[in-house]
Amino acid sequence: MNHFETIFDFFTKKLAGEIEEISKRVPEKLYEPVIYSLNMGGKRIRPVLLLMAYQMFRSDLEKALPAAFAIELFHNFTLLHDDIMDNAHLRRNFKPVHIEYSNNAAILSGDAMSILSYEYITKCESVNSKEIIDLYTNTALKICEGQQFDMDFEASNNVSVDDYLNMIGLKTAILLATSLKLGAIIAEAPVEDAQLLFDMGYNLGLAFQLQDDLLDTFGNQDIFGKTIGGDIVSNKKTFLLITALKLAKHDQLTELNVWLQKINFSRDEKIEVVKKIFSELKIFEITQKKIEYYFQIALNCWEKINVDLERKEGLLSVAKNLMDRQN
Amino acid sequence: MNHFETIFDFFTKKLAGEIEEISKRVPEKLYEPVIYSLNMGGKRIRPVLLLMAYQMFRSDLEKALPAAFAIELFHNFTLLHDDIMDNAHLRRNFKPVHIEYSNNAAILSGDAMSILSYEYITKCESVNSKEIIDLYTNTALKICEGQQFDMDFEASNNVSVDDYLNMIGLKTAILLATSLKLGAIIAEAPVEDAQLLFDMGYNLGLAFQLQDDLLDTFGNQDIFGKTIGGDIVSNKKTFLLITALKLAKHDQLTELNVWLQKINFSRDEKIEVVKKIFSELKIFEITQKKIEYYFQIALNCWEKINVDLERKEGLLSVAKNLMDRQN
């Protein structure tokens, strides 16, 4: 069993105990969707990263557990509310809370999860408790800002690559970064190492999201687990489309815009045409390079973390696994 | 100018400055509804109570301001989400955020307000900061629980007076109680006084909500500012209806149940019949007594607070004003 799996199993077991505790709270209807959501599973990547970062500096993993629960609760809270806003119909192969229960349940139980996450994060006994709570709150607010930018971009025709990178930084990368940094802060690691872990997480997060965009268009449908081309069909302003719109000239640009504006179209035809233009513009290669660029920065940060190799090699392999995924 | 007005003006002025700061944040679309909601006004009763409690023990009011902002932000966040859940069409004579903007805006900007309130509450520099944040989080979660109970009760035919009092305790009274207690804790007041203020606020909150129920049925429409009888028309399980269902016998109970189950009816006729039954059962008098009962407990707590009369008489007059209101 590798390091990730060991910590994943440790966390999953502890989380099950915590879910048991939450299930004793009333009113039941408030906490049922919380438990449903936590039981949906998922990769638990954020809490595991937090625990791995902690373990680079200290071995008494229990001490970092409340923060790991907090991060997982907060992440799930954002999914509950995002799924209402995005009108999502599937989440990790389950019905999202707003469909399984109701919109109201998803709103109110989401609110409770967000507050419950504060109950956990403030349980961390640490000399750094002010720094912990400030980082946590700052991150939580940035995630809301990222979600708003994402919604704004849907209605905008003027989104630059920098706008996009800023948005995914807020919406996705910062929570990976903060997870790693929190682990370090709770372990009372040196400030420089905590910052390196943050930077590593942030760049890994950007690479991860760009990879997600790439898989949505160029992935293998059987492995990816969801329909390929969803982003193309919905005109989602991903790195791929934004870059294509920037590079396309004359006929290509005209054709791209025609397809972006079409209301009635064959789904497969749209995907085929847009992918053809993407290929002509070498969008796959450009995105791949961008992913490698951010992944390399993440690796550089990792290298500089001032702990023995045996304490940090687990994190390297997790980072590599994250990027090797095809789903 | 009385004590309440002095502090109200102080708070309102400081809040305006804070709104100015919030308006500089981006994305605009996230923070616009926050500002819209804060600018709707309202009595600012919670932050003013917090500041009044603080001023019983210390004079440097600025120190308690972040907590006062936090409480006002949190209260407004709950209104944003409650108004979606209750499908409300009017809030303080303005369109609620979900109508003026959109459901998504009310969800996400509400989330941001909730987190922003944590930014403020954690700004309180105090030796009691752990106690402050724990009380705050505990209260926030209880308010969610109260809202869920309230929604549960709509679908239940088995709500007791105790259930109801517990629900309004969670949904309404606890935030008044916590506002007062936070003021005391931030001022580093003796533990006994902080607890007396909490108990005073809680009982005042119960009296206040029961008064609200009473006005909805027996108020003067011109002064009350909203249509009388809304609770009767919607079968809202208030103290009045629950008590009537408990006391009604034979024909009265049958008639009451007939009207509760009617789907098509004349609004005015339903209000008239139900009010007639309420009168026969002396519901007005019973509720009035219950209000006086809780108000008296609040006064007893106030009396025991161990500070000079001149430092606490302002709070007494606010409490009395709250109960004298007709809207």
Describe the structure concisely.
By secondary structure, chain A is mainly alpha-helical. The first copy, chain A, contains 16 helices and no strands. The first copy, chain A, has helices spanning 3-22, 28-39, 45-55, 65-85, 97-100, 103-121, 129-154, 161-186, 191-218, 221-224, 230-233, 239-247, 250-261, 267-280, 283-304, 309-324.
- Total strand segments of chain A: 0
- Please give the count of helices of chain A: 16
CATH homologous superfamily heading of chain A: Farnesyl Diphosphate Synthase
The residue-averaged pLDDT of chain A reads 94
In words, what does this structure look like?
- Two copies of one chain form a homodimer.
- Chain A is 76% helix and 0% strand.
- The first copy, chain A, is an all-alpha fold and 327 residues long.
- Chain A has one domain (3-324): Farnesyl Diphosphate Synthase (Orthogonal Bundle), CATH 1.10.600.10.
- In chain A, α1 packs across α3, α3 packs antiparallel against α4 and α3 (45-55) crosses α8 (161-186).
- The longest helix of chain A is centred in the middle third of the chain and has 28 residues, at 191-218.
- Chain A is globular.
- The A-B interface holds A 25-27, 29-30, 81, 84-85, 103-104, 107-108, 110-112, 114-116, 118-119, 122, 129-130, 133-134, 137-138, 140-141, 144-145, 147-149, 151-152 and B 25-27, 29-30, 81, 84-85, 103-104, 107-108, 110-112, 114-116, 118-119, 122, 129-130, 133-134, 137-138, 140-141, 144-145, 147-149, 151-152.
Helices and strands, with pairings:
2 copies of one chain form a homodimer.
Chain A: H1 3-22, H2 28-39, H3 45-55, H4 65-85, H5 97-100, H6 103-121, H7 129-154, H8 161-186, H9 191-218, H10 221-224, H11 230-233, H12 239-247, H13 250-261, H14 267-280, H15 283-304, H16 309-324
Helix pairs in contact in A: 1-3, 2-6, 3-4, 3-8, 3-16, 4-6, 4-8, 7-8, 8-9, 9-15
